[in-house]
């Protein structure tokens, strides 16, 4: 994973990360509220050494510093505890004591902690005085070293523990770490295809296009101009990429399939066929999904007579083909479902039909999905190339890999992959598939067409004017 992939993953999981931080901070705050409040107060004293004449105080001498460090264990000694009790008439304040010497000095700092702020201040003061009394008693009256109180403790106004800001910060950090772990595990164990890289690696072919999730794709029968700007531009990009997939030997017969049902292959091929026809190409769309045909309903044409009847020799090809829209798109519906779809699609008659159609038109074949039936693998041997449609967030990587291997077993040519239903906006749109987060208005300056340039693509269902001649 590159740095760019890492930041894209962060963006894609921003909700989980924010939720983790908020929950962690809330847990830290709740933990702080459950802890008892502790108040800390400090008092300070100096260890001083008289000079040989008994006059001036050499407070910074090394002897004073050594004595200050030597007196630290006295703070929790029994002698000091008894002295504290005596100084408080046998009722010593409850709490804990600690002491330290300031670095490079002879300053002793006594800290007292208690649940009562007044008791903490009283304990700190009496502890320093008690320590000084015990230390001076140990040194004796003739000693040049003595402990003197410097600063009395004051009553604390705020508890020293729990440290609410610190606990909240720790909780937020732990929540963020857990959320990052969840994001990594989601990415690691996610079996569905969510990026163009996933689709390209699983299919073993390049990306021809990424189509956004857009409701206007249901209007492909109305023409590509009726799509939303981002959708129409994505279809045009797919059309351009497909034209340049093999410049020296451009494919004339192209089947479009998917690994599983419900990945949007029929919608993709209908939009592509309309875009090719709009660019001036002579295109015929053949609905070869004889088990679950979709093109007749998408273009709102009669579909009871079509490919099945032509292959069975019941009708002539010119009688089964229909012309729709203002661009002269030709459609050969699937017809009735035959009892032997695989045999029909893999027959020599089907190969000859596609060969005849390719002499006059670019032939796009809506093929059945690869994994449920063998129709697509049989059909792929009769076409110049196959395009795999992969649905974002739904298609499994292993399913695409199996479909790729099945097509490779019959020496099919996979022209590329189309990633379908990419998120058009929202968190993760730029990571999951290529980014369609721009608004329709941002495309408006590039998408506006001269007045009268768009035809009204009525779903006519007119018969083709003998454009394609069927040769037996």
Automatic annotation (TrEMBL):
GO terms for molecular function: ATP binding. Belongs to the CpsC/CapA family. Keywords: ATP-binding, Cell membrane, Membrane, Nucleotide-binding, Transmembrane, Transmembrane helix. PANTHER family: FERRIC ENTEROBACTIN TRANSPORT PROTEIN FEPE, TYROSINE-PROTEIN KINASE. It is found in: Cell membrane. This is Capsular exopolysaccharide family. The chain crosses the membrane at residues 168-185. GO terms for cellular component: plasma membrane. Residues 442-472 are annotated as: Disordered. Residues 456-472 have a biased composition (Basic residues). It is a multi-pass membrane protein. It holds the Pfam family CbiA. Residues 254-424 form the CobQ/CobB/MinD/ParA nucleotide binding domain. It comes from the Bacteria. Residues 3-85 form the Polysaccharide chain length determinant N-terminal domain. InterPro entries: Bact_polysacc_biosynth/exp (IPR050445), CobQ/CobB/MinD/ParA_Nub-bd_dom (IPR002586), LPS_length_determ_N (IPR003856), P-loop_NTPase (IPR027417), Wzc-like_C (IPR005702).
């Amino acid at each position: 994973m590159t740095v760019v992939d890492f930041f894209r993953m962060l963006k894609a999981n921003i909700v989980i990360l924010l939720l983790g931080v908020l929950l962690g901070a809330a847990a830290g705050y709740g933990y702080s509220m459950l802890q008892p409040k502790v108040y800390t107060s400090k008092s300070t004293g100096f260890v001083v050494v008289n000079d040989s004449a008994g006059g001036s105080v050499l407070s910074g001498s090394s002897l004073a510093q050594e004595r200050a460090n030597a007196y630290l264990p006295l703070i929790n000694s029994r002698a000091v505890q008894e002295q504290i009790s005596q100084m408080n008439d046998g009722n010593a304040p409850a709490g804990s004591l600690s002491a330290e010497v300031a670095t490079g000095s002879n300053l002793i700092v006594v800290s007292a902690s208690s649940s009562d702020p007044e008791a903490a201040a009283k304990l700190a003061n009496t502890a320093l005085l008690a320590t000084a009394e015990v230390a001076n008693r140990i040194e004796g009256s003739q000693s040049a070293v003595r402990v003197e109180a410097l600063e009395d403790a004051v009553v604390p106004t705020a508890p020293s523990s729990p440290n609410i800001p610190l606990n909240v910060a720790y909780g937020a950090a732990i929540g963020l770490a857990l959320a990052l772990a969840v994001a990594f595990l989601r990415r690691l164990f996610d079996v569905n295809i969510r990026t163009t890289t996933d689709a390209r690696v699983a299919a073993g072919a390049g990306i021809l296009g990424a189509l956004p999730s857009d409701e206007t794709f249901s209007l492909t029968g109305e023409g590509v101009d009726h799509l939303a700007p981002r959708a129409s531009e994505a279809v045009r990009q797919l059309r351009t990429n497909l034209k340049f997939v093999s410049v020296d030997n451009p494919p004339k017969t192209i089947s479009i399939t998917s690994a599983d049902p419900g990945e949007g292959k029929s919608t993709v091929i209908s939009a592509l066929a309309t875009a090719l026809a709009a660019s001036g190409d002579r295109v015929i769309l053949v609905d070869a999904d004889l088990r679950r045909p979709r093109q007749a309903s998408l273009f709102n044409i009669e579909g009871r007579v079509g490919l099945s009847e032509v292959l069975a020799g019941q009708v002539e090809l010119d009688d089964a083909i229909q012309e729709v829209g203002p661009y002269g798109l030709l459609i050969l519906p699937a017809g009735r479902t035959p009892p032997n779809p695989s045999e029909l699609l893999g027959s020599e008659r089907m190969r000859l039909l596609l060969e005849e159609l390719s002499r006059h038109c670019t032939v796009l074949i809506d093929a059945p999905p690869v994994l449920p039936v063998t129709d697509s693998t049989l059909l792929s041997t009769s076409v110049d190339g196959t395009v795999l449609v992969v649905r974002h967030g739904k298609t499994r990587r292993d399913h695409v890999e199996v479909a790729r291997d099945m097509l490779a077993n019959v020496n099919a040519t996979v022209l590329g992959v189309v990633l379908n239903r990419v998120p058009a906006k929202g968190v993760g749109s730029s990571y999951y598939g290529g980014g369609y987060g721009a608004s329709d208005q941002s495309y408006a300056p590039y998408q506006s067409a001269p007045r009268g340039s768009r035809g009204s693509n009525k779903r006519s269902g007119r018969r083709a004017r003998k454009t394609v001649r069927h040769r037996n």
